[in-house]
Amino acid sequence: MQPTSKKTVMKMREAYERTIRKSSTENLKKKFPERPWIEEASSTWISRKELEALLNANSADGLRIYYGCHHESTHSDPKLDYNGLHNLIFVATKDSVDAQNPSTETSVDQLRDIAVTGDTSVEPTNYEGSAGDVTTLCPPSCPPPPPEE
Prior knowledge:
By secondary structure, this protein is an alpha+beta fold. It contains 2 helices and 5 strands; from the N terminus they run αβαββββ.
């Protein structure tokens, strides 16, 4: 990962808005006509605590981020439902060759096919062998706009 200036970040976000997000929002409106307010997500947020929990539970030395799409309802309020929206899936990785110098080529996803057990009304906090994917999406839950410079 390389440091990136705010100017570059803003240009990349503008390109995403003009191309992928615009087109995806149009497709979502066609797919979900009963949700005319639907817009493709433009960002997601995750706390440091949750990232550290995912990495620590898997003794990870890296993180792979996959693009995904919510394929089922996530909320009883249709205006807060993520069904159809893009999301990011955070997967802890562990280098299979050199833990001191992990690389994308030799890092292995730390995922197992396990069932979530226990009280499903409470958010799971043990990420061992699992990924994190239900992060806060904007929209519908957006922060205030960044200050102008």
